[in-house]
């Protein structure tokens, strides 16, 4: 059903001390997909990526890239994976050109043309020192270095963090160019929901170390619905709605977001509402935020946004 | 790999001046001070260089790897198409290059300085810095060891500690080879130990900075306190009269050998020692003397003099050591391995005034006479111990004779021209001047040291105007042969010590302390051999040596139990700390206490290891390590391994480890956390059950 | 051919694309046999995931708006009704319900609404209107 997998994980779990950061994650990412990994800070996104790349040992469970266990990736495997760390780390004392040279010496083949092109897209002078680059330019260099190694799989840890709109657009274009042929895959963590909606075709949402959503963007949108209920805010009664993701109060009414609504859901909503419930349209952002708000206040379904 | 080397060089070049400074400062601390006192020692330079180089090697290794502990930097550097080992190797190569420069710059400066000053100023050649170079090379291995220790996550015993232990052990052995031990070596061992321990602690996972810092600071402070405490005790005890007692053999006034328990006390101005006998008994044939018997009043033991051989390595000029020197009249004499003594006069400019050969003093530019066949200064000094004890200039001696050297005139007088195999200097019981007993070709020649008038009255053991740093001049001496007799007929050809009684009898003791022989030199008749049974010699550990070998942690425990043990044995605690040969009882208490302490610590480690959930092999290794490394081990276990986290099993509700797939009680696997009903997973549809929603795979 | 998409709108991106192409076809901005941009080209132009475009084209092909010619790309298809009469009516009612509901909340009279609808129909479908 999913075709050839580039990334897979089974029961992947990681604790830091007593705190569970990634909890029993099963993950299958097919070749040719762009997956957006969403979650609040501390939801376990970076930890997951570090485990995938073999920089962190799972407490239990396992994960594989190209079918090879992450803990024993060979240099040849790594050459097929492009990875940019959070914040686009570069050695500050190197110039852009020196970074390119460093990359060329440590990867089997570097597409210098692609590097130059990507760097130009971000408007960077190759003679500049890395430490004098702006955040967006650094992202450009980092991305250019990674893409120029022509990987089959790109793993990006929050690449858009702190980028200006122009750099964001350049980033999105670069990523889409990268997976043009349909054989290359991207896994990126991000906080920019609009960009993920545009660029990604699959979405994964982590809440408290758990993978609650992992499906295609369209499937995700199709399966989340929202109603506006004539119900006083902060009523505990709404917890009886099956598949309730989040409830918030809005102008004296209660807005509920539910996953996979069916007749039972509709019936429960109709029962609770004092007048006819109103079905609302749900944007991608609304749906994701409903899930993410849940992690803010997991004890109660009521997120106190309006109250 | 080349890329990594270049990158590391570029990044860490800034530490090069720091390294030059560290090693330079250590060299500076040693060199000018030595020169001020007219002595410069290759040994001291080697040690200082080693401490500086070891510090820099560890610091450089840590600096090259500690930043890579950050997730971002680690991800950027290690996610490449080169293996982690290649990255590490690149770092080591870059470290080696920087380290080589950091060592070479100060050492080259020192060598150039030596060369520029020339032998007229300093009795060292630049080539004598070679041991320091070797020391630097040896110390470099701390660099990769640090690198590995910082980088690796501790999963089992070996990965964390083994590199450092493996490096430290040969390093300490190398140090012992290049120098003859002593306080400096002890300090070095301590320093290395503390540093290694600190490195291990720094290498703990990056999550617990506060705990790590606490442990590093704590262990360093503890180590410093231990060292200061031990050295203070040692030094203060040196100037107290109390000395330990131990068994030895001496003669009474009549020439009868006694086995007695005695102690040494300082007397007079504190520069000489005196033996005091406490209990003992005369040695009878085939009997074991009772060491605890009461002694007659006014019993005063006279000790044997040790026989020194010309074959001993000490008289050769060693590559890695200082040439033997002696000081008198503000002059320093160095034995040069060409067979001549170099004379440095601190009041002269340049200090090198000339050389001394067997023919006498030759100013610079003159052709010297025949060279000595041994280090005449050192060998002569040992032969004429009684002269040195009384503060006189020493005689010089080599394989071919005995010489008197006058520091004022520079004249060398040959007192005896005879092959010498071994010998000793003895003051006869009740006698007035020292004698020399020289063994040559199987015979022993007995000489009296007389002045020009043939009298022996010139010898004066304790002069009130004696000064510890300036020796007294000898009158013009002659060796007057008293007797010649064959060597004592012991089963082993060596004999350890000899004495001369008031009546002129010669007493020789064999090397195993199981027989003595007497000979009436006036009659020159046969040796009379008496065999006896020697009480078991209580050979105890030197507290300082133990401190050097045992790590600080065990040393602390050891010292405290040691004090307790001494109190139990009925002695004042602190006075016994400087024990060289404790009595048998104390030793047993000591050993038992040490073993109990070590076993207790091992049990603590074992318990800790099991609480941390280590594998059986690791538990055993750590437990054994405790017996060698002491208190450091349990601390390291606590510091290195993360706390074991357990959660109740969802199946049987009993506590189980989170990192094991199967429950040890019910063998259940972890089940997924309960579904919240809002999971949206591809290929799965939610079906409505009675009350709960379950996710089932769509078919 | 001008297509605009907005991320973060209540309509998903693939729906936005297919709606706009439908509208273009209905308004005769695209005629039968006209080529539409390739999936890759459109994805590149709009800076969106090609799979999204592919999905939208697939829906349009299924609905008979576009047809795929092996190796040549996508073209506007000859109009044919693939829905039953009842289904078509249902869909029409649905669309009208939404529009009328909106119009009522904006306080328009039924006359105003039908007049307005008529104007739009004339503008969008002149020939259809003429044949009637």
What does the secondary structure layout of this molecule look like, with pairings?
The complex is a heterotrimer of chains A (about 300), B (about 700) and C (about 130).
Chain A: E1 5-16, E2 19-30, E3 34-39, H1 45-52, E4 60-65, E5 68-69, H2 75-79, E6 81-84, H3 96-106, H4 112-121, H5 135-148, E7 153-157, H6 165-178, E8 185-190, H7 193-199, E9 202-207, E10 210-216, H8 217-223, E11 224-229, E12 244-250, E13 253-259, H9 263-272, E14 278-280, H10 284-296, E15 302-303
Parallel strand pairs in A: 3-8, 3-9, 6-7, 7-8, 12-15
Antiparallel strand pairs in A: 1-2, 1-4, 4-5, 9-10, 11-13, 11-14, 12-13
Helix pairs in contact in A: 4-5, 5-6
Chain B: H1 2-12, H2 16-36, H3 42-66, H4 71-78, H5 84-117, H6 130-139, H7 142-151, H8 157-178, H9 183-202, H10 209-238, E1 245-251, E2 257-267, E3 272-282, E4 302-303, E5 305-306, E6 308-309, E7 325-328, E8 331-336, E9 340-345, E10 352-357, E11 360-363, H11 376-383, H12 385-389, E12 396-398, E13 401-405, E14 412-417, E15 422-426, E16 435-440, E17 443-451, E18 477-486, E19 495-500, E20 505-510, E21 515-520, E22 528-531, H13 543-549, H14 552-568, H15 584-611, H16 616-629, H17 632-640, E23 646-648, E24 655-657, E25 680-681, E26 684-688, E27 693-697
Antiparallel strand pairs in B: 1-2, 1-4, 2-3, 5-19, 6-15, 7-8, 8-9, 9-10, 10-11, 12-13, 13-14, 15-16, 16-17, 17-18, 19-20, 20-21, 21-22, 23-24, 26-27
Helix pairs in contact in B: 1-5, 2-3, 2-5, 3-5, 3-6, 3-7, 3-9, 5-6, 5-7, 6-8, 7-8, 8-9, 9-10, 9-13, 14-15, 15-16, 15-17, 16-17
Chain C: H1 13-26, H2 39-46, H3 50-62, E1 66-69, E2 73-76, H4 85-105, H5 110-124, H6 126-131
Antiparallel strand pairs in C: 1-2
Helix pairs in contact in C: 1-3, 2-3
Question: Mind explaining what this structure looks like?
Answer:
The complex is a heterotrimer of chains A (307), B (699) and C (132). Chain A is of the alpha/beta class and 307 residues long. Chain A is 32% helix and 30% strand. Chain A contains ten helices and 15 strands. The N and C termini of chain A lie far apart (45 Å). In chain A, 54% of the residues are buried. Chain B contains 17 helices and 27 strands. Chain B is an alpha+beta fold and 699 residues long. In chain C, strands 1-2 form a two-stranded antiparallel ribbon. In chain C, a hairpin with a 3-residue loop joins β1 and β2. β10 of chain A pairs parallel with β25 of chain B, so a sheet runs across the interface.
């Amino acid at each position: 059903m999913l075709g050839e997998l580039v990334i897979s994980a089974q029961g992947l779990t990681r604790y830091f001390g007593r705190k569970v950061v990634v909890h029993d994650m099963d993950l299958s990412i097919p070749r040719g997909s762009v997956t957006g990994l969403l979650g609040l800070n501390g939801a376990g996104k970076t930890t997951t990526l570090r485990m995938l790349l073999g920089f962190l040992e799972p407490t239990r469970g396992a994960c594989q890239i190209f079918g090879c266990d992450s803990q024993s990736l060979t240099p040849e495997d790594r050459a097929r994976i492009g990875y940019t760390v959070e914040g686009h780390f570069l050695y500050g004392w190197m110039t852009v050109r020196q970074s390119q040279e460093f990359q060329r010496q440590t990867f089997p083949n570097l597409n210098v043309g692609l590097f130059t092109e990507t760097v130009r897209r971000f408007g960077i002078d190759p003679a500049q020192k890395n430490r004098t680059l702006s955040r967006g330019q650094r992202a450009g260099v980092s991305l250019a270095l990674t893409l120029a190694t022509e990987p089959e799989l790109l793993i990006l840890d929050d690449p858009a963090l702190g980028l200006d709109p122009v750099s964001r657009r350049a980033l999105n274009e670069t990523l889409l160019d990268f997976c043009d042929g349909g054989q290359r895959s991207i896994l990126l963590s991000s906080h920019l929901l609009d960009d993920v909606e545009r660029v990604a075709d699959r979405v994964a949402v982590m809440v408290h170390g758990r993978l609650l959503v992992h499906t295609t963007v369209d499937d995700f949108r199709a399966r989340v619905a929202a109603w506006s209920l004539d119900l006083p805010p902060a009523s505990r009664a709404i917890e009886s709605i099956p598949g309730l993701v989040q409830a918030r109060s809005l102008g004296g009414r209660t807005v509920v977001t539910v996953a996979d609504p069916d007749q039972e859901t509709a019936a429960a909503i109709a029962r609770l509402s004092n007048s006819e419930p109103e079905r609302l349209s749900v944007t991608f952002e609304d749906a994701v935020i409903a899930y993410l708000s849940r992690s803010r206040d997991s004890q109660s379904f009521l997120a106190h946004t309006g109250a | 790999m080349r890329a990594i080397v270049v990158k590391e060089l570029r990044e860490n070049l800034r530490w090069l001046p720091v390294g030059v400074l560290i090693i330079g400062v250590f060299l500076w601390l040693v060199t000018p001070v030595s020169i001020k006192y007219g002595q410069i020692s290759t040994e001291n330079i080697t040690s200082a260089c080693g401490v500086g180089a070891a510090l820099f090697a560890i610091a450089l290794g840590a600096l090259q790897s500690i930043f890579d502990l950050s997730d971002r930097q680690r991800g950027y550097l290690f996610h490449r198409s080169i293996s982690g080992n290649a990255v590490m190797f690149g770092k080591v190569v870059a470290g080696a290059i920087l380290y080589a420069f950091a060592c070479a710059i100060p050492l080259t400066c020192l060598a150039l300085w030596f060369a520029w000053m020339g032998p007229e100023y300093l009795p060292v050649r630049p080539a004598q810095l070679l041991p320091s170079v070797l020391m630097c090379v040896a110390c470099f291995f701390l660099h990769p060891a640090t690198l590995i220790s910082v980088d690796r996550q501790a999963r089992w015993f070996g990965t964390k500690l083994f590199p450092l232990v493996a490096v430290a052990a040969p390093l300490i052995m190398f140090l012992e080879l290049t120098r003859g031990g002593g306080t400096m070596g002890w300090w070095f061992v301590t320093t290395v130990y503390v540093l290694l321990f600190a490195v291990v602690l720094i290498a703990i996972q990056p999550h617990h900075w506060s705990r790590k810092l606490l442990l590093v600071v704590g262990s360093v402070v503890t180590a410093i306190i231990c060292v200061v405490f031990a050295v203070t005790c040692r030094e203060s005890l040196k100037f107290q009269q109390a000395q330990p007692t131990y068994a030895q053999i001496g003669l009474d006034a009549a020439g009868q050998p006694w086995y007695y328990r005695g102690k040494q006390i300082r007397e007079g101005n504190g520069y000489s020692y005196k033996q005091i006998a406490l209990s003992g008994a005369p040695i009878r044939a085939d009997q074991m003397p009772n060491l605890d018997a009461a002694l007659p009043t006014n019993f005063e033991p006279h000790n044997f003099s040790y026989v020194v051989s010309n074959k001993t390595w000490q008289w050769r000029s060693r590559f890695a050591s200082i040439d033997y020197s002696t000081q008198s009249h503000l002059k320093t004499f160095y034995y040069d391995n060409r067979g001549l003594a170099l004379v440095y006069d601190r009041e002269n400019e340049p200090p090198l005034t000339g050389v001394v050969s067997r023919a006498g003093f030759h100013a610079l530019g003159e052709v010297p006479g025949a060279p000595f066949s041994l280090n005449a200064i050192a060998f002569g000094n040992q032969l004429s111990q009684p002269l040195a004890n009384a503060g006189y200039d020493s005689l010089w001696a080599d394989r071919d004779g005995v010489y008197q050297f006058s520091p004022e005139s520079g004249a060398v007088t040959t007192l005896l021209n005879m092959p010498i195999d071994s010998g000793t200097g003895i003051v006869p019981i009740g006698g007035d001047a020292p004698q020399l007993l020289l063994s040559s070709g199987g015979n022993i020649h007995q000489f009296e040291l007389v002045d020009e008038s043939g009298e022996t009255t010139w010898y004066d053991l304790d002069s009130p105007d004696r000064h510890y740093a300036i020796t007294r001049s000898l009158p013009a001496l002659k060796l007057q042969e008293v007797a010649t007799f064959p060597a004592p007929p012991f089963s082993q050809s060596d004999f350890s010590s000899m004495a001369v009684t008031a009546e002129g009898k010669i007493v020789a003791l064999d090397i195993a302390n199981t027989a003595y022989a007497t000979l009436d030199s006036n009659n020159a008749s046969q040796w009379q051999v008496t065999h006896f049974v020697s009480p078991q010699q209580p050979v105890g550990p030197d507290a300082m040596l133990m401190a050097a070998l045992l790590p600080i942690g065990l040393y602390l425990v050891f010292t405290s139990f040691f004090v307790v043990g001494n109190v139990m044995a009925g002695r004042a605690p602190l006075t016994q700390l400087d024990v060289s040969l404790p009595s048998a009882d104390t030793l047993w208490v000591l050993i038992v206490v040490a073993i109990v302490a070590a076993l207790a610590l091992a049990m603590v480690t074992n318990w800790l290891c099991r609480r941390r959930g280590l594998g059986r092999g690791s538990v055993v290794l750590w437990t054994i390590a405790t017996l060698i490394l002491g208190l450091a081990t349990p601390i390291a276990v606590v510091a290195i391994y993360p706390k074991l986290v357990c959660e109740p099993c969802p199946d049987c509700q009993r506590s189980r480890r989170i990192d094991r797939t199967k429950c040890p009680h019910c063998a259940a696997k972890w089940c997924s956390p309960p579904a919240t009903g809002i999971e949206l997973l591809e290929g799965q549809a939610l079906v409505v059950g009675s009350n709960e929603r379950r996710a089932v795979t769509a078919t | 051919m001008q297509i605009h998409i907005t991320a973060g709108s209540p309509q998903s991106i693939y729906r936005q694309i297919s709606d706009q192409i439908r509208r273009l076809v209905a308004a005769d901005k695209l005629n039968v046999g006209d080529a539409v941009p390739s999936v890759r080209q459109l994805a590149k132009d709009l800076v969106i995931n090609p799979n999204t475009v592919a999905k939208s084209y697939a829906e349009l092909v299924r609905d008979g708006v576009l047809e795929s010619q092996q190796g040549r790309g996508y073209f506007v298809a000859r109009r044919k009704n693939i829905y039953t009469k009842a289904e078509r009516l249902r869909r029409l009612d649905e669309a009208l319900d939404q529009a009328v509901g909106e119009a009522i909340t904006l306080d328009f009279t039924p006359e105003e609404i039908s007049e307005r609808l008529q104007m739009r129909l004339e503008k969008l479908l002149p020939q259809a209107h003429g044949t009637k």
